[in-house]
Design brief:
This protein is of the alpha/beta class and 186 residues long. It has two domains: 40 residues; 138 residues, Glutaredoxin (3-Layer(aba) Sandwich). Helix content is 51%, strand content 18%. It has a six-stranded mixed beta sheet with strand order 1-4-3-2-5-6.
């Protein structure tokens, strides 16, 4: 048998091979579409408008994990400058038991601006807009200004407050990250 003749398939075998190839390619395409859809669902950014009690329940539900909560406002330039670090920490430390949350302190009617910012930053963790008078959340967490970051330990208690109300003692996410690393190791 000549080498050239052995490379050719009979029409019936060629048709069967093409059918199998097309079925395989179709299967790969379906899996790709399905996994892309799933990835989009996982990476969807949402903003939930909540009252204080609902926010407290969300925090309490994370007991057993280290929780970092970033209080921010669309009006706050330092908040927006540091926010990408929260997103980075979420991606870097979620596997170690870190839960990141953001709490926008903007007016509820401004939620569209807050959501747009969160989407731009790809903040795929729990994002909340607190629909309460500022005095309520400020008194609860002893926060007089944003930016502010609260860290809760695995036991569910407040471990550290980072507040931006003292210009002589500013904080950055380097400070927050240095504080959470030992908590995550426990």
């Amino acid at each position: 048998m000549d080498v050239d003749q052995s490379a050719h398939l009979a029409p019936k075998e060629e048709t069967e091979l093409m059918r199998k190839l097309l079925a395989t390619l179709l299967g790969i395409a379906i899996i790709g579409i399905a996994s892309t859809g799933h990835a989009e669902e996982e990476s969807k950014v949402t903003l939930q408008v909540v009252k204080m009690q609902a926010l407290l329940k969300q925090i309490q539900a994370q007991k057993g994990k280290v929780v970092v909560i970033d209080f921010w406002g669309d009006f706050c330039i330092p908040c927006k400058k540091e926010f990408p670090n929260l997103v980075r920490m979420h991606h870097e430390y979620a596997k170690d038991g870190l839960v990141c949350m953001s709490v926008a302190v903007d007016a509820a009617e401004d939620s569209a601006n807050s959501l747009k910012f969160l989407q731009e930053k790809k903040a795929t963790f729990g994002n909340f807009l607190i629909d309460e008078e500022p005095e309520i959340w400020q008194e609860k967490w002893n926060i007089s200004a944003v930016p502010a970051v609260l860290v809760y330990g695995r036991d569910g208690t407040l471990a550290k407050r980072f507040v931006g109300d003292d210009p002589k003692k500013p904080f950055t996410y380097k400070d927050v990250e240095a504080f959470i690393k030992p908590l995550l190791a426990k």
